[in-house]
Design a protein that fits this description.
A 3-stranded antiparallel sheet has the order 1-3-2. Helices cover about 65% and strands about 10% of the residues. The chain is mainly alpha-helical.
Length: about 150
Amino acid sequence: MTDKDVTIDKYEVLKLKNQLCFPLYACAKEIVRQYRKPLEKLDLTYTQYIVMLALWEFGKMTEGELGEKVKLDSGTLAPLLKRLEKLGYITRARVEGNERKLMVTLTETGENLKDKALNVPMAMHGCIDLPPEEIIQLKILLDKALEKM
């Protein structure tokens, strides 16, 4: 084996094709791009949609609790919530007895948006061209990976 062969092997770990992070990143980016069209009808970005999903499922909660559920830090979540409030989908109010906490609550308009959002999952059906059993396995593996992070 020559020095050149060792050098090639040494840098094999730095090849894009050997990175787990790259296909995860590229796939996530493409899926978010595909959400744009169905979400335009709701006047939502993908991240706003995720926040609305959490509020529809779990109801009112503090900004911190919401951030934990959707895996967003307050620097990202705060301006997003301001925009949702401006759209009339949510209200934010200080928690009595704790001025540092904000309670996030759906408005009637935000709650009614849930019916319009029913079309989004159907519009996204088939965006990943894999057999249903592989989609299920992918979801299981991604959930498991997130849980362990």
